[in-house]
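Collaboration report, partner site 2.

Our partner group contributed sequences for two proteins of shared interest, and the home lab folded both. The records are reproduced in the order in which they were received, starting with the first partner submission.
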Amino acid sequence: ANNNTLGFGLRANGTVRIWNNFSVAYSNAIAGLSNIISLEVDTAGSTFLNPDGTITRITSTGRTNLFPQLTNVVTLTRFVNGFAALRADGTVFTFSTGTPPPPAFATTNVFDIALDSTWGAALRRDRTLRNWGVFPVPTNLPNMKRLPPAFPAYR
């Protein structure tokens, strides 16, 4: 994962490697991470998914825990100046500065989500794809097929 100035790699053992780092605070905070499941990097910081479903957020000033209410997170995605966290129950939490949140239909009953500053797409648990904003590719292709049920643990 990367942004304009930082690059991260997640190793199989759950440790994180960083390159192009210009901040001692970042280096020290990254060194303390272990057993990381997933990560995202955005223009305002980086977010790391812990094995217990909580997150750790790191900004240029160091490690923070601004989101103690976030539990049962199963995946993270970048959201321009922030991030989105998908919980096991299909709800989406977003944090971003200067970007409007996704519409209501994209924050519940979600299986996966992708976001940017002017568009987004949510794959819902009923296997429908919903998008909003100025989407860079067509979504009404006639040969799209309904996906079979997958990952029953998330239902």
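Second partner submission, folded after the first:
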Amino acid sequence: NLQKLQKFQQQYLLIRLKVENMKKSKNVKYAGFWIRFLAAFLDGLIIGIPALILQFLLILTTRISSSMYLVQLGTIVFTVYMDGIKGGTPGKLVLGLKIVNEKGQFIGIPTAILRYLGKIVSGIILGIGYLMIAWDSKKQGLHDKIAKTFVVYKK
């Protein structure tokens, strides 16, 4: 009887946990296409323009045109770091958005790398991976689905 009681308690706790997670997921507001588009535009201003200027200056001073790839690599590392550790790029953060996993937590570096690779795929297929955000119920692009991430509004 003691084993049956313990098994019942475990099942009860699991059901309670699932109900709590369902309640939490209903309170989540997913970020749609246009707000994420605006975030990407802001990232272009905040990250892209300084990176472009830095590339130009690096090429001008070193006279090595391939040195611009160093800046591009730095931009990728910065983006992955921001997404994984801080919850999003500056554009997302300014707009009150964050990238989370299925548990509502920051995604970490490995998932951020996977998400970044998914963005490349999203772009290669004529941007359709990004357009998916517009019609998906949880507003996930292909890169979000690949990495199992969500972009949500901060509370």
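Feedback sent to the partner group on the second submission included the following. The first strand starts at residue 97 and ends at 100. The chain has seven helices and two strands.
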